[in-house]
């Protein structure tokens, strides 16, 4: 029975990580096609990717949009969760439903709606328009995570701080935010991940300054290349490195 459990576990991990292993392996292909037989190893595609100004510009654009939009989404989501969790308002259930509703809507529908609205008000496709779209899709996520993390023990701590003379700003900055640190970090980094990988909104709401997923899509239109594998490998390795650093620093539980 134990052997069957281990076999099942290995099969699950192989199913999840085998595409990534193939991606990384053929990023070292010396030939022009990332297909068997393997011809390498070679680092020429990594050198080509790092020397490509268009790709590096798209990478910077993706980082810019992801960090700015995630910060705004986290701030708005935190304020909305704090207000609806601490103050009982008429129709608060409907408000929560409206805030979470974009999570159930296709990104394509959201992108088309934003594109139509921007055309009406005269906003041209740009990175800023894409950032607005990413705030729309990430704000409900941040709100849901933070609202679920707000419990009665935090409410009691906030009440005690007010009784001791703390202002509302001090309560939020010195009591609420530190107690919600894991949820805040989880919401922020999930938002960064979703913004970093998002393609449909970025494709419809950008024109000349594109994000990395749109640039990769443009490269794939001309066919498969180990260069695209190299890009994917770099993004994957950077993501893993950030995750390991966070696990060892931010999310590490102190020894009792």
From TrEMBL:
One of its GO terms (cellular component) is plasma membrane. Residues 59-246 form the ABC transmembrane type-1 domain. It is a multi-pass membrane protein. The chain crosses the membrane at residues 7-28, 63-85, 97-121, 127-150, 171-196, 230-251. CDD domains: TM_PBP2. Pfam families: BPD_transp_1. Keywords: Cell membrane, Membrane, Transmembrane, Transmembrane helix, Transport. It is found in: Cell membrane. PANTHER family: PUTRESCINE TRANSPORT SYSTEM PERMEASE PROTEIN POTI. This is Spermidine/putrescine transport system permease protein.
């Amino acid at each position: 029975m134990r052997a069957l459990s281990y076999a099942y576990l290995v099969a699950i991990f192989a199913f999840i990580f085998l595409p990534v292993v193939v991606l990384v392996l053929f990023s070292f292909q010396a030939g022009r096609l990332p297909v068997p037989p393997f011809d390498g190893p070679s680092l020429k595609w990594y050198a080509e990717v790092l020397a490509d100004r268009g790709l590096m510009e798209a990478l910077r654009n993706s980082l810019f949009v992801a960090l700015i939009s995630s910060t705004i989404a986290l701030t708005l989501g935190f304020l909305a969760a704090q207000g609806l969790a601490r103050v009982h308002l008429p129709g608060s259930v409907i408000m929560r439903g409206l805030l979470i509703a974009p999570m159930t809507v296709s990104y394509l529908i959201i992108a088309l709606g934003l594109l139509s609205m921007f055309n009406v008000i005269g906003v041209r496709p740009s990175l800023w328009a894409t950032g607005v779209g990413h705030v729309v899709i990430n704000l409900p996520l941040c709100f849901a995570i933070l609202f679920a993390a707000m419990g009665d023990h935090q409410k009691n701590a906030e009440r005690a701080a007010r009784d001791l003379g703390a202002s509302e700003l001090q309560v939020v900055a010195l009591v609420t935010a530190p107690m919600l640190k894991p949820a805040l970090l989880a919401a922020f980094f999930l938002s960064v991940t979703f913004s970093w990988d998002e393609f449909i909104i970025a494709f419809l709401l950008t024109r000349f300054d594109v994000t990395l997923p749109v640039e990769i899509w443009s490269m794939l239109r001309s066919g498969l290349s180990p260069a695209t594998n190299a890009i994917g490998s770099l993004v994957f390795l950077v993501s893993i490195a950030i995750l390991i650093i966070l696990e060892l620093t931010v999310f590490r539980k102190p020894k009792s």
